[in-house]
Amino acid sequence: MIDEEKDRLIKLKKIVAKGVLPYPASVSDNRQPIEKIVLNFDQLSKAQEIIILSGRLRSIRLHGGSSFTHLEDESGRIQLYFKKDILGEVNYDFFKKLIDIGDFIETQGKLFATHKGEKTLLVEKFTLLTKALLPLPEKWHGLSDVEIRYRQRYLDIIANPEVKKFFKIGSLVIKLLRNFFDERGFYEVETPILQPIAGGANARPFITYHNSLKTNFYLRIAPELYLKRLVIGGMEKVYEIGRCFRNEGIDRIHNPEFTQIEFYQGYADYNDFMALTEELLVYLLEKIEKTLVIEYQGRTLNFKPPYPRLDFCQALIKEINLDLDKIKTREELTGFAKKKGLKIEKSWGKGKIIDELYKEYVRPKIIQPTFIINHPIELSPLAKQIPSRPNYVERFQLLVGGGIELGNAFSELNDPLEQERRFLEQQKLRQAGDEEAQMIDFDFIEALKHGLPPTAGEGIGIDRLVALLTNNHNIKEIILFPTLKPKK
Questions:
Q1: Is 126 in the same domain as 157?
Q2: Which residue in 65, 127, 159, 440 could disulfide with 106, CB within 3.0 to 4.6 Å?
């Protein structure tokens, strides 16, 4: 590659010496997308119209006084035919000796079909737009190159056309999410990413320092507490699409920074949001896949509502014969978990142990879209208790595809005194060493004291959703620039 770069640098100097700009600022106003030209090829070739195309050269085949190349832009690819008799010796020599695969050029000419029927532009003029100083990748092989794909995503997109499709679907999903909630009267809002208290989820935050204010801030782990402040203020339907940050491990469904949508609606509860979530998924699948039945990692998933509702407690009884109503102490639960082979950290409270048992033994069994409902109160410091079951809350998680959590929702706790009590319990867990336990947000408690109507809230991980829709096992495949350990 070093020799290739040196060779291209020599060509660059020759280009400049000829008085040609290797990086001009503008292109023709009349350039057209290649896809449009290919679709209308018969009509345009018969009319012998002058066609202007711009793009990157993806191949070059030199044959003395004539050469064939392929030009590619975002919309498609077409063959170009360079002929000395048409271009003149000086221009053809410039092309033959100084242009490389990977360079961007603008071409002008007329369309024709070769003897083999390939749609082709006969080039009458061309202009160099960008001289590439490094060659394009050809193929990817092995695990080490998978890492290169993530580090140098631009090369991945160039080399693997299917990857570009994943990111286009991701963009479409965000557009459709906005359409869905806008049509239903929700307001899109923005809340702080730098927060004095990291709240809204159980997660370890990233810490940063503000020089002027001389204080620490946290990158948000969730927008929840700010969105609920807006409902308190009278904005009854709000949503936010944005990045969240959690200082946690990295695996196929976790990245330290991720994109999610959170939405809140006053005068609604978690039952309303189960119906809304089903409606949302049907909307997305019909727009993107044109079907409610999709393939994911060798499994057929059917998103036709209604989805089963599986009680959290009953799921644990079914899978590991654990009845939470009969477990009175952390010690009893710890003993049970250890017998199951779960390694218990000293800082874990009862809720954390329950959650780890659930993640290990229940979630992987869930294949078809399923709502796991009515979680233990220890797992849900922001959710409202079930009146007839005070040890459980009105919460659901939407699971699919072997335990992938797509959505998490509550009937929001709106009792300020109970919320303060729950925050204090979380503080005890933090003091015992649980860095994922929530901090006390006294400003939020004060906001609750002004009155939050019965409200439902939900968060949906967009990266996981797009991975599901594109049949990708790992969310790194659909995050443009996933978090990686820096190279030395």
A1: no
A2: 127
